Amino acid sequence: MYLPEAELLRIPPYTAVLWRQFVQYPCMLYGLFERGPERIDFNPDHIILAGAKIREYKVENLEELEQVKRDLLNKLILFRVEVENVRENNYVLVNVRKITTDKFAVLVNPKHPVIQDILARKLTEVAKYIEEGQSFCLKLDFSLPMKDWYRGIVDRINSGRTSVDGDMCIYVHNCSSPDECCLSPLCIVGCFPFWLLFGGLCYFIHRKLKYIDKKYCFHGIPVVLQTEIIPRVIPRVRVHHPLIRIVAIRNPQDDPVNPQDDPVTDAVETTHF
User: Fold this and answer.
1) In the 8-state DSSP scheme, what is residue 45?
2) Whole-model pTM?
3) Domains in the chain: boundaries
4) 139 with 215: CB under 8 angstroms?
5) 88/85 Cα distance (integer angstroms)
6) Mean pLDDT in runs of 10 for the chain (273 residues)?
7) Which of 39, 44, 161, 262 has the CB geometry, 3.0–4.6 Å to 267, for a possible disulfide?
8) What is the per-residue burial (b if ≥16 Cβ within 10 Å, else e) of 95-121?
9) Which DSSP letter does residue 229 get?
10) Whole-angstrom Cα distance, residue 127 to residue 113?
């Protein structure tokens, strides 16, 4: 579970492995993970396990920010995500929706120059907010390269929309991370009466006046699929018509029958650094 510094630098910026393959053969990710009797083992000195949860770092001073900066710039980050692509075809009598989805273990290498230069600059920029005594939150979004890569595999004409279920974001702040539901334009427009009734407007104004929220989305970064097997995506076709019942096609082997059979779930949920 140890690689020399020169080997770490040669790891691609993004490496994806189908989750079910990673559970069976964790060593596929450059030998950084090993399968133990009950869980997957790794060295926390080299790996940040983000899992499927939001990863937050709260810093109170410049010393704590420097420590977080060292961790994010020198440790690889493992995310567990589910990527979904939805494509709709409108015919004369029916509307066919094709949904393809897969679960991945995604290893992000911040040591790679395409990530490290930007990441170091963004973390350095927020130091001035601490010096000035201002409340801030920096959101680092790593999901866009996965969306673009997956869309290119399953939707050659790029007419569908792709989403990532499982947060590929890291927050660095000295206060709190923002409530995305209250600040999202889509939620505000779609649920405006409820947003207004339950204090969304007050939260929106308070957040904009008292906090400095910064966001950076990594983009244009290639993703490497670490396997010789082409990812097998099983489409679920839904047909919408008054006289036609909805049909769903899925592969029962894509998900474990019993969540307890997944040895990595416990590692994601219970590992603390």
Assistant:
1) T
2) 0.74
3) 5-235
4) yes
5) 10
6) 74 94 90 86 88 79 94 94 82 74 93 93 92 92 92 71 77 82 69 71 77 91 75 41 35 42 38 34
7) 39
8) eebbbbbbbbbbbbbbbbebbbeebee
9) S
10) 22
